[in-house]
Amino acid sequence: MQSTSDSDPRIDTIGRTCPxxxxxxxxRVQVDREARRILRIEGDPDDFRSRGYLCPKATAMQGVxxxxxxxxxxxxxxxxxxxxxxxxxxxxxxxxxxxxxxxxDLAPIDLGFFTALTALS
Length: 121
Known about the structure:
By secondary structure, the protein is α+β, with helices and mostly antiparallel strands. The protein folds into two domains: 2-66, Single Sheet (N-terminal domain of TfIIb); 71-102, no CATH class. Helix content is 19%, strand content 25%. The protein has helices at residues 56-59, 61-66, 88-100, and strands at 2-4, 11-17, 26-32, 37-43, 75-77, 83-85. It has a four-stranded antiparallel β-sheet with strand order 1-2-3-4. Strands 5-6 form a two-stranded antiparallel ribbon. The longest helix has 13 residues, at 88-100. The two termini are 16 Å apart.
């Protein structure tokens, strides 16, 4: 679902699934695309799972999105302990290089990845 406000063409309402937990609640997110701001987050009453319910985690997404300290690009730790912003290509190359350096007898328990279950929905 994506609709544009009749009164202001910059305002869109976007339907999406909440990425925070495995409940996969349906959201309606009202955004001002020009200002790159979330104006409102509400539950989607048409979502078959959540039926309009919205937990506190989902309502907090606006604060997370607008947090000035939120990482928006990859960073790499320097030798002096500070962090340096790097490009996506460099970040992927670095990760691939480090994964390729793992010993061939690496046990499955030695390496782990985390992703939200919502990545599957």
